[in-house]
Structure formats: C-alpha cells, structure tokens
Amino acid sequence: MQFIGTGSATPELIIKNTELERFLDTSDEWIRTRTGIEERRIHDGNLEGLAAEAARRAMENAGLSVSDIDFFICSTVYNRFMTPALSCVIQGLIGAGCPCLDINGACAGFVYALEMADAYLARGHYQNILIVCAEEPTRMADWTNRATCVLFGDAAAACVVTKGGRDPLFRMHTASNPEVLHGYNTAGNCPYDKSGRVYEPMTMNGQEVYKFAVSSATEDIRALCETAGLAIDHIDHFILHQANLRILEAVRTRLHQPVEKFPHNLEHYGNTSSASVPLLLDELNRAGVLKRGETIAMSAFGAGLTTGACLLTW
Ligand code: ACO
C-alpha cells in the first residue's frame, strides 16, 4: 500500500482557551499545562461540507479525479446522520460513484480504515481507495463539563492510498470497557423500550484513558518494531493521535526518542478524534517533511477501549 495524496479541511471558527473561561470554571493556564491545547476549531453545522473539501484536496494532491477512486471509507464517530452513512452524503457532494461505507473505530478509526484499505487493495479488485475522517466531537461533548469539552475540536482529513509500495504492519486491539468513555443515544419514541435510556453526552475517566494511551502506544510501537526486525531509532516520524501533549511526551520519553520525531498540532486543533492522525499527516506532507522511503509509526487510541498502530514506509 502506498500513500499518494493527503488533504484536510478545518472549520473557520477558532475558539481560544480564554474564550472558554467566559462560561466554564477553567483557565487557559490549566488547559495548556494539562493538555497542551491552546485553541480548537468548531464547525458551524456543515461537517459533510468539510469532509468533501478534505476529500477533494486529497484527490487533487494525488493527481486523481473522482472517477479514479474505486472504494471510499469514511471514519466517523458521530455526525448528524443516523442514516444514511455519512460516506454516502459525502459521495454525493464529491460526485463519486464507487461503493462506500462508514466505520467507527473511535479515535483509532483512521488506522482501522487504513488496515481495511490495505486488505482490500491486496485482494486485487481496487486500485485507489479514498479514506475520509470526518469528526465533530464538539457535538458529543457536554459544554457544561469542563473535564471534557475543553479537549475537543472538529476537523476532516483524508488520504488516497493505492497498490504498491511496501506492506505496512498493523497491530489492532479492542477491549470492551464502555465505563471509561461513553455517550448514549436515546431510544427514540419506541414504546417497547424498557431501558429508559436517554441521550447522555460523552463522559470520560481522563486518568484511565491517559494511562491506557501511554502504555498501549508504547507497547504497540515496540511490538511492531520487533515484528519488523527494526530498531525503534530507525523510525523517522511518530504520528500519534493528538489528544494530549503529555501523552505524546510520555510515549516519546519511554521510547527514548528526540522531540523532533514526535510532531504535533493539537495546540491548534484539540482532539479531533479519528481526524487527528490524517490531519497531522496532511500538514507534514504539504510541508515536505515526509520523504519517500521514510518509516512512519502511527498509533491512536480511543473509546472502546480501542487502539490501532501501524508501521509503514512513506
Ligand atoms: N479546568 C480546570 N480544572 C479542571 C478542568 C478544566 N478544564 N478539568 C478538570 N479539572 C480539575 C478536576 O476537576 C480536578 O479537580 P479536583 O482536584 O479539585 O478534583 C483537577 O482538575 C484534576 O483533574 P484530573 O482529571 O486529575 O486532571 P488530569 O491531570 O488527569 O488531566 C485530562 C485531565 C487532561 C483529561 C487527562 O487525564 C487526559 O488528557 N486524559 C486523556 C484523555 C483523552 O485523551 N481523551 C480522549 C481519548 S478518546 C477520544 O479521543 C474520544
């Protein structure tokens, strides 16, 4: 599998930490020191428009037109459509005619989509696969809860992968632990539902997620390197889920790597769920930081609890 294009689109509205101080018992200082986040972007209600723009930019970057895309995977945790799949809506906006579907691998969704794309390409029926991560965690958060809402931002990011290149290695893991991180849908008005379930915004045990994120990312990267027979020092870029700068720092120091190998942009976007890894990938790609033949380790974690890690050649 080979990456041939990346793209992203982020909302225009920028909300700085100081803006949150106006209606939450929080401070810029607390958010910066505990998370590294300085600002986040929040969309105005048109997530699918952002996603379509990210897709167009990725196809343009790949030098492909929409008719060259054989399959399209959309990673999304939450969006305004219960049905149809968000990928179908985006498909209409970009004029794609290929089959498409949505997946929910939480914040690790991009890595799950990549693994699926790799398997589909290996089967030989498709040449080019578009992956779009479209996320609006700001709509899942409780904006009266300072422990969660300050952490998130909205974004869409995409890539096109094709046949060829070296085979990536993946390591995926899921463990059922909804208590740590969850949000609930309502039961609608179904008269037969006895659960009494009602809409409940996202709640999270931040410290549990923190510990899980640090240990799983460190273990997964070590295990992938062992499988590949590669020294960790030979990895050129560690592209991790952008949730918290302290998590990135903890993984970096455990793996004994220099700061410049752990790029981050969470200070400007917050945690954008599964869009965070491809958003950073697009920034690095367009800045010319990623060179052909370099080795990249990706690792992401999220609700489930779910992890996905990947070792690939750019
Ligand atoms: N402003 C001010 N104070 C706050 C805020 C806030 N925004 N949020 C929490 N606090 C307070 C708490 O109430 C607590 O106060 P207390 O000591 O009086 O009880 C104090 O700060 C410490 O709270 P902790 O939760 O212990 O703070 P911690 O240092 O663990 O940082 C954080 C919290 C940032 C959430 C951290 O645990 C973390 O980043 N965890 C990982 C979370 C994550 O990555 N989630 C996303 C992954 S999954 C997904 O992407 C959907």
How would you briefly describe this protein structure?
The chain is of the alpha/beta class and 314 residues long. The protein has helices spanning 17-20, 28-35, 47-62, 86-94, 109-123, 146-149, 206-228, 245-254, 266-269, 276-286; strands at 2-9, 14-16, 39-41, 71-75, 100-103, 128-135, 155-162, 169-174, 181-184, 200-204, 237-240, 295-302, 306-313.
Q: Return the structural class.
A: alpha/beta
- Uncertain spans, ≥5 residues at pLDDT below 50? none
What is Rg?
A: 19 Å
Largest sheet data? 5 strands, mixed
Named CATH topology of the largest domain: Peroxisomal Thiolase, Chain A, domain 1
- Provide the number of structural domains: 2
Approximate strand percentage: 15-25%
SSE pattern, N- to C-terminal: EEHHEHEHEHEHEEEEHEHHHEE
